## 1
Amino acid sequence: MELIITALILLFVSAMIYMATRYKRCPSDRILVIYGKVGAGQASRCIHGGGALVMPLIQHYAYLSLTPMTMSIPLTNALSLQNIRIDVPSTFTVGISTIPSIMNNAAERLLGLSPREIEGMAREIIFGQLRLTVASLTIEQINQDRESFLESIRKNVEPELNKIGLYLINVNITDITDESDYIRSIGKKAASEAVNRAKVDVAEQEKLGAIGEANANREMVIRVSENQAEAEKGQKHAEANRRIYVQGQEAEAITGENTAKADIANANAELGIKQAEAWQRSEVAKREAQVEIEKAQYQAEIERLNAKEISQREIDRRKIEIAAAAEAERNRLEAKGEADAILLKYQAEAEGVRSVLAAKADGYQRLVESCGGNPRDAATLLLVEKIEEIVAKQVEAISNLKIDKITVWDGGSTAADGKGSTANFLSGMVRSLPPLHDLAGMAGIDLPGYLGKMQEADVSADGAADNPSSSASKTS
């Protein structure tokens, strides 16, 4: 018994849990669509708010979002009732309706579609109905009475949207334009009419003032005339009555004629005024159109010239940059070439000097080795080689002496050595040159014996003191 009760409890709890999982609640911003077997003659059942039990196997469910969709409808070249093409930029906001009949339409035609697909479908419907609405109205009705225009749009668009489950939330029409500037011309016409009405009112007031002034003057003249006539009334009463009768008849005839002429003149004037106004509007429109065309041409020409000037300046700037870059590159290459040439020249000179010094060092080393490693003997040999050059220099020194004339006075006496004074003078001058051994001594070198030795001069006391009176010499 306890097992049966437990089983029943478990069965009941399981049934409740299963039923709870099959009960679907509908949020406020959605529509719950139950489809499958929902009733005779029904394809689906729509619920907004609350919830419903979805039977397994025979029913299923889905949701439709109630979020509004805002789309821009840039209607262009729409043909109005006057066959004038206009542009009607507008913004439409639509959404899925919660009215039961319209909800069913949405469940049948929009279930399973993405918001983009729904928006595309609505856009096509709105485009077509908006064109139809514009084609049924004049420009004045569209531009001046926006409330009527929006109401016409709503009447044409909303029924078509309801067919697929949508309804129109809001319509916003921005500036309406046309290719021929008819709407702008209407505005200009209204402004001109207002200005003209103001001018007419001013003229009317001025006319009333002039009429009042004329009436006052006429009244004054009449009063004066009446007073004069009253003075003459007695004597001319009979004549005046006759004349008044005749003038009255003539005045009546003239008045009729003048009235007819005035009516004809008024008609002609009215016709002339209307023709002048029409011609004026036409000329103003032409002149304004011509001015706009000339402005556009002037602006286009300025932009073209500016673009040409800018492009030419850019080309000139690029040419200058390229020329400057080329000049800089040429100077750099020339400087590099000159630097390389100077470097090669100095390298060659250094190499020549190094070769000469190396050759001299090698020769000196071999000379020292040939002298048994004695540097002093090597230096002596080098000096011996230069003896000929030294002697030549001595000879050149003597030869370069510029002696214009030598005059010797010789008394005919002879010295102890048997030589005359003139001979002793010449030999003394030769001895005044530095001897070879003295030059070698100055260099710190002893010449070898085979080159001879210095002869010691025996100078006696008698020879040392020659008689000065025996000879005399003078050089100049």
## 2
Amino acid sequence: MTATLPPSEPSYLTTARERVKQARAAETRGRVVQLIGLVVESEGPLASVGEICRMESPRHDQSALAEVVGFRNHHLLLMPLGELHGIHPGCEVIATGAPLRIPVSDELRGRVIDGLGNPIDGKGPIRGRQMVQLNLVPPHPLKRQRIQDVFRTGIKAIDAFTPCGRGQRLGIFAGSGVGKSTLLGMIARHAEADVNVIALIGERGREVREFLEKDLGEEGRRKSVLVVATSNEPALARVKGAFLAMSIAEHFRDQGKNVLIMMDSVTRFAMAQREIGLAIGEPPTTRGYTPSVFSLLPRLLERAGAGERGTMTGLFTVLVEADDMNDPVADAVRSILDGHIVLARELATQNHYPAIDVLESVSRLTRELLTPAQLDLTSAAREQLAVYRKNQDLINIGAYPAGSNATIDDAIARHEPMRRFLRQGIADGLTLEQTWSALAKTLAPLAPLKAATPTKSA
């Protein structure tokens, strides 16, 4: 006799069951007593840090959501998640009893949502059967899979010189206007990921549609989830947008998928947290950043990586002020991540795209991901580029006499072929085999000489 399985519960019943579980038997209420800058101060209700409260104004028939971010003199400090128009002293503040929760499902692929999970692409609501919180904990350090497999980005300069593994986290460091968004679009389009989760945090509103249609393209958009929190959004909404993107990526990773999460940019995430910290009275430290910024960065970035099932590879852009690679946020992020890719303004001004400075870029897993033969090729290429850069001034002014040094002569002969190898069109995506074959051809006469002296990777 064959046992029959009970029929699965319809999705609308599951959703209703979740709502009943979250419903509160009684409401606790307070009232707004003060609003200064970004912070609403209320007398009551009884609520904890991270809990969402609803502020209602019967006078204007308006309401707004806010999160509890601190306490002062037995009053709650609330940070709004939206506009505060119509909120006045005496408005009711109602505790929801829970932090912000967002529905997630496979229907998110191909959609564009805001920092609170609301669709903004005009394609209707997103049905989700699973509600997730935004502030989840990173995977257990002893249960993470080891990073052993190469993650193909399709970008020659990255795959050959700064190899990325499945579950690795890399930072892309650059000043403004050097090509970060274009590089992210190229990777999203050509990378081998099953799902892309792209967070545009603090970006200009004009750039969102441009990124969608120009940089990402229809091919990349079909397998991508975009979380958009533009610069005009409240600071807390921008911070929540970054954590929402992480929660969505974790949802797909836990299904066993190969997920790529990209965030542009971590610097604007840090600036949003700085606004929140200064508003609630935190003391400013280096360049005005508050201590909470540097405690929040690892809580965000450590959530990326390999899990018990599936992998989540992370690419995080860092907007460096005045091209200073040692500003506080850049320094903190570089110490957390597993490598960094540097985009140089000098290369961008020479129409060299992607403007990746391979000598300044480092992957901490190079030796675990490349074969000995590939390491020899990369070492030979790095040596050639380093020799040319060291003697570039002499070469450019004609002070170096040809034939004086065989190593410098080789570097000069290979300089233009290497530049051609490192350049790549936006629509061009290469397999790993094509990348290594092209590099081998570029260094064919030199590789045997350099194989015995590989450069030690960081």
## 3
Amino acid sequence: MNILIVEDEVGIVQFLQQGLEEEGYKITAASDGLQGFELAQKENFDLILLDWMLPKLTGIDICKAIRLKNTITPIIFLTAKDTVQETIEGLKAGANDYIKKPFSFDELLERIKIHFRNQNEPEILRLGAIEIHIAKHIVAVKGNDVSMTQREFELLCYLVRNKGKVCTRTQIIKDVWNIHFEYDTGVIDVFINAIRKKLKLKIEEDCIKTIRGVGYIAND
């Protein structure tokens, strides 16, 4: 797996490069925003670690520019900016994840592995009579297509990927909404109800069950 690091702090680059290479990843590093963007345009990377404040071109500008042509490659922001508004701005720019400095290498490594697992998943996910075609962004029940919003689709995929496991509301907000601060998790219930309605599932008998006070679990 080939990872691009765009970071102007030499110590952080050396720390990340050493640790990630020991884990078997191929690392390419850029010390300013313009160089990072040019590399991202020329080469195919499996994941990009992107600082926010960079010389010549900011991380936000790079992220937006990359997303105009590349909507697939995971982008993880590594930044000291930590306000709620800044976090939202980074995610709206197209980032998949957001890690605040200083951070634990073990945490970063686990986040990277999660994104790689998602990239390498089967093309079709199944839950009972439900089929989810990832690349085509299609959900079908017994061969009939069901229209879903992007967030509904992401939430359903998340539950099916974690089939048989209880997914807490807090974890869903972090992993699906990419929100890593205190947030009203009640919004998840609204989306679950919408998904059930579109899939025509009966609340007490469906394959997405509510674990009261905790979250949800998907089972065949």
## 4
Amino acid sequence: MVTLTDGQRGALGAATAMFCVGTLTGVSPALHHYPVYGGQAVRYLVGALLLLVVARVFGKGFVRLTRREVLFLAALALTGLTAFNVLIVESTRHADPAAVGTVVAAVPIVLAVVGPAVERRRPAPRVLVAAVVVVAGVVVTGGFGGGSPVGLLLAFGALACEAGFSLLALPVLGRLGAIRVSAYSAALAVPQLLLVGVVVDGAAVLRVPTAAEALALAHLAVVVTVFAFLCWYAALPRLGADRAGLFSGFLPVGAVVSAVVLGTGQPRFADLVGACLVLVGLAIGLRPARRRAAVAA
């Protein structure tokens, strides 16, 4: 039986989480005619209920939250879940999805710079270089696209929210753990998204899904929310926000694989080149730092 180190577990968890999130692209076409914000609310509601069951099974029952923890969890749900979804949807109305994806793909660079500051340490130049290489790989895969200044501004807002999904979790993960943080943040996002849905879609915020839509929503709830959240929040304390952010490069890999499996697309040469750049960036960022030779007194 192979025994993994703590860092290897973190790397495996982060890669798995981002790969699962990438499959969102493959199933999204099935939800093109379903109310966007109502669908996200359903996704997080089902995900939160499943996560609470998981918490019960693993003995991670409810704990009394401090005021600080409530504020961090509410901010995490508002930015990393609710606002992120709203900004992504609205930005694609004013800009090409490739342009939006390219902007949001810069999150490894943001985490490489801001993450160490949150954790009260200096940014590692090696990880920053690796983040640039990973982002280059994602850009090669997705392309640049085009759009209006409004669309790009909204995309940068989504980038900030994506960074908040990790950074706002760090202060509460130590005491609450991955299961509770995932469950509480998903539950808090439900009323927020329903409120947005009522404002945007009115009475049409929810409807009974078709069989295909129900399967897509189930995938979002179980794989992209429950499983991916648990993997990501378990990996984050092990790797740190900067190194964990490098695994965002697995998003387009998951998108390409899911498209091939579902028959909605085929990998291009640019996809392969981008994946290679992502792997090179990971190799740079995850390489152990050289130990300085001892100097004789």
